[in-house]
Design brief:
Blueprint (H helix, E strand, L loop, with lengths): L3 E6 L10 H9 L2 E5 H4 L9 E5 L4 H13 L3 E6 L8 H11 L8 E5 L4 H9 E2 L5 E5 L7 H14 L2 E5 L9 H10 L7 E6 L7 E6 L12 E5 L5 E5 L2 E6 L7
Parallel strand pairs: 1-4, 1-5, 2-3, 2-4, 6-13, 7-8
Antiparallel strand pairs: 8-11, 9-10, 9-11, 12-13
Helix pairs in contact: 3-4
The structure holds S-adenosyl-L-homocysteine.
The site of S-adenosyl-L-homocysteine has 25 residues, from helix 5, strand 9 and strand 11.
Length: 251
């Protein structure tokens, strides 16, 4: 008798931003699978087995989860934010598509989570209020020239852009290159936000402009939001400004 597999987004960090459905699914699991720092965010429970892994082995992790499910375990696969945004849900479905036919009959549930871009946007006001897109700057899973092309087209099309995987030790220069490329299309006063470790104790938010932005403000916990020509700042005395993108674009 095969078990169940639940793919869970834990939210951006704080327990309040992990949904009740996600919490219930974590409690019901016999086995937890995920990148070790994400598993550390899940409270320990007796009779639950943890399978922490490195961040780079997503497909191996997915196959491991599916083998355990087929063997009758109740598996929870965890990602940060939403599991479908640059995270494990796609890896699971890729493994199912290319795996044994029996995996297509497994009991799979995906539980949505609050992605970093939504948590960051809520802190700032409403920067994602009109059309937007999300782009990962990691070139582990796609060629860098494609990232450059997408950045250029997104800026040209007037999307607010949420940049994920902005900076890591393995890729220290991508963000600087991305900001330079965006500056070829967008005006220098375009609002740029570095939102780091949102909803965690070390949360930091820097609101700046494209001309003033420095890639050094980001690390691997940072989401960078790039506004559009419509994105507005509302200044407030003694407090950070609100940032919003209006619901309408002039004709
Ligand atoms: N599935 C996740 C994204 C995983 S990719 C989601 O939906 O949020 C990892 C990247 O997400 C990080 O490099 C960073 O760019 C962003 N990120 C994750 N948690 C974050 C947080 N609390 N604050 C800011 N950015 C975060």
């Amino acid at each position: 008798m095969s078990g169940t597999i639940t793919i869970i987004g834990l939210g951006p960090g704080s327990s309040g931003l992990c949904t009740p459905d996600a919490t219930a699914a974590l409690e019901a699991a016999s086995d937890l699978i995920g990148y070790a720092p994400y598993l550390d965010r899940v409270p320990e429970r007796p009779h639950q087995t943890r399978h922490p892994s490195d961040n780079r082995v997503e497909l191996d992790r997915a196959r491991h989860a599916l083998h355990l499910t087929e063997a009758g375990h109740h598996v929870a696969v965890v990602s940060s934010g939403d599991a479908g945004v640059f995270a494990m849900a796609s890896a699971i479905f890729e493994a199912i598509e290319h795996g044994p036919a029996s995996w297509r009959s497994l009991d799979v549930t995906v539980i949505p989570g609050i992605s970093a871009m939504f948590a960051a946007a809520a802190r700032l006001g409403a920067p994602l209020g009109h059309d937007f897109c999300a782009i990962s700057l990691s070139d582990n899973l796609k060629p860098w020239p494609l990232v450059r092309r997408r950045l250029h087209l997104a800026a040209d099309a007037g999307f607010v852009i949420a940049l994920y995987n902005t900076r890591s030790q393995a890729r220290p220069h991508h963000l600087a290159e991305a900001l330079t490329l965006l500056a070829e299309t967008l005006p220098p006063d375009t609002p740029v936000v570095f939102a780091t470790a949102i909803s965690r104790p070390d949360e930091q938010i820097e609101i700046t402009t494209l001309a003033e932005s420095r890639a050094e403000s980001a690390d691997m916990r940072t989401l960078v939001l790039i506004g559009t020509a419509q994105t507005r700042l509302i200044d407030r005395p003694g407090q950070a400004p609100w940032l919003y993108t209006p619901r309408s674009v002039p004709a």
